[in-house]
Write a structure and sequence with these properties.
The chain is of the alpha/beta class. The chain has two domains: about 5-15 and about 90-100 and about 105-295, Vaccinia Virus protein VP39 (Rossmann fold, 3-Layer(aba) Sandwich), CATH 3.40.50.150; about 20-85, Immunoglobulin-like (Sandwich), CATH 2.60.40.1180. The protein is built from six helices and 18 strands. The protein has helices at about 115-125, 140-145, 160-170, 185-195, 220-235, 255-265; strands at about 5, 10-15, 20-25, 30-35, 35-40, 65, 75-80, 90, 95-100, 130-135, 150-155, 180-185, 200-205, 210, 220, 240-245, 270-280, 285-295. The strands form four sheets. Strands 1, 2, 10, 11, 12, 13, 16, 17 and 18 form a nine-stranded mixed β-sheet that branches. A five-stranded mixed β-sheet has the order 3-4-5-6-7, with no helix packed on it. A hairpin with a 2-residue loop joins strand 3 (about 20-25) and strand 4. Helix 4 (about 185-195) packs parallel to helix 5 (about 220-235). It is globular, with a radius of gyration of 19 Å. The chain starts with a strand and ends with a strand.
Length: about 300
C-alpha cells in the first residue's frame, strides 16, 4: 500500500528568462513577466521588502492590482505604464503562451507551477505514450508541457480558458499534438471517465476554492474534493505514475489533503507526499510560499 511520508516537502521554483519574483514584503510581491513588471497582493509576504524603493526606474512596475473590499476576490488594475491589452508572448522551455492582466489578479498562468511541470516529466521519464489528465487545466501551459510524453486530456469549465489554451498550443507549434480540449465540469467529466473504464498514467488537478461549471454546477472545495479524489483514483492503477493536487487560498494544511490521498491510494504501491509550493526571489534565496500540495507517486 502507498506509504504516507509525514515530513513535508518544499517544492521551490526559481525564476527563468521570462519570469521572476523580483521582491516581496509588506503583503505584496513585485514580479517580472518578460519585459513587464507588476505588483500584486501577497498575504504570505509577512516580512519587509529587501529593496527600499519599488519605484526606482530599473524595477518600477507597469501596474498594480488593488484588491476589492470583499475577501473572495474582485479588484482592479492600476497602470502606470502602457501594457498590451491583448497580452504578450512568454515561454517556459518549448511551451509558448500569452501573459495578460486578468480581472482575477493573475496573468494567465501560474509560474509557481513550473517545478510541478518538471516533476511530472521526471515521473514519466522517456515515455512518449503516457496518457495524462489535466483537470482545471486553465490556459494549458501544464497540458502542453505534458504533451511531449503522450496524449493529454485537458478539462476546464471555462470556454474562454480552453480557447486560450488552444491559442497557446498554436503559439508553441504544438497544435498537432494529441490533446483533447474539453469544456466541462471536472467532477462530472471524471465520474463519466470512471463509468467508461478509462485509465491514465498521471493526473494533475488544481481545483479552485469555489467555482461553477459550464451548466451552472457549483464547486466547493471542502465539500466536493473528496469525491473528486475518489473518482480520480479509479482512473489510476498500479502501473500509473502520479497524481498531483494543488490547493490555493484555503485555510487548510497540506497534511489534511495528504490524508485524503493516503486514504484513497491505500490499495496502490508508492508514496504519498505533501508540502508547500514556493517561488524563490531573484538573486536572494528568500522563498515565498504560494500554495499547498499533496501528491501520489509510483516510485
Amino acid at each position: 500500500m502507498a506509504e504516507l511520508i509525514h515530513q513535508p516537502v518544499l517544492l521551490t521554483g526559481d525564476g527563468w528568462a521570462d519570469y521572476g519574483l523580483v521582491d516581496s514584503g509588506a503583503g505584496r510581491k513585485l514580479e517580472r513577466y518578460g519585459d513587464y513588471r507588476f505588483i500584486r497582493p501577497e498575504p504570505q509576504a509577512l516580512w519587509q521588502p529587501r529593496m527600499a524603493d519599488w519605484d526606482a526606474p530599473h524595477i518600477a512596475s507597469h501596474g498594480e492590482f488593488v484588491p476589492g473590499a470583499d475577501e473572495d476576490g474582485g479588484g482592479r488594475w492600476n497602470y502606470t505604464k502602457p501594457v498590451p491589452r491583448d497580452g504578450w508572448p512568454l515561454s517556459w522551455g518549448d511551451v509558448k503562451f500569452t501573459a495578460q492582466c486578468t480581472p482575477f489578479r493573475h496573468l494567465g498562468f501560474f509560474p509557481d507551477m513550473a517545478p510541478v511541470w518538471g516533476w511530472m516529466g521526471q515521473q514519466l521519464g522517456e515515455r512518449s505514450d503516457a496518457s495524462t489528465l489535466n483537470l482545471f487545466g486553465y490556459t494549458g501551459v501544464g497540458t502542453l508541457a505534458l504533451s511531449q510524453y503522450g496524449p493529454v486530456t485537458h478539462v476546464d469549465a471555462s470556454k474562454k480558458s480552453v480557447a486560450q489554451a488552444r491559442v497557446n498550443a498554436a503559439l508553441s507549434g504544438m497544435e498537432s499534438r494529441p490533446v483533447r480540449w474539453i469544456v466541462d465540469d471536472a467532477a462530472k467529466f471524471t465520474a463519466r471517465e470512471v463509468r467508461r473504464g478509462k485509465r491514465y498514467d498521471g493526473i494533475i488537478m488544481d481545483p479552485p476554492k469555489f467555482g461553477r461549471g459550464p451548466d451552472g454546477e457549483v464547486w466547493r472545495l471542502e465539500e466536493h474534493l473528496p469525491g473528486l479524489i475518489h473518482d480520480a483514483r479509479q482512473l489510476l492503477d498500479e502501473n500509473s505514475r502520479f497524481l498531483f493536487l494543488t490547493v490555493y487560498a484555503v485555510r487548510m494544511s497540506s497534511l489534511a489533503i495528504a490524508g485524503l490521498l493516503d486514504e484513497a491510494f491505500a490499495g496502490l504501491p508508492g508514496y504519498v507526499e505533501h508540502g508547500d509550493l514556493a517561488v524563490r526571489e531573484d538573486g536572494a534565496g528568500r522563498m515565498l510560499p504560494t500554495a499547498i500540495f499533496a501528491r501520489w507517486r509510483r516510485d
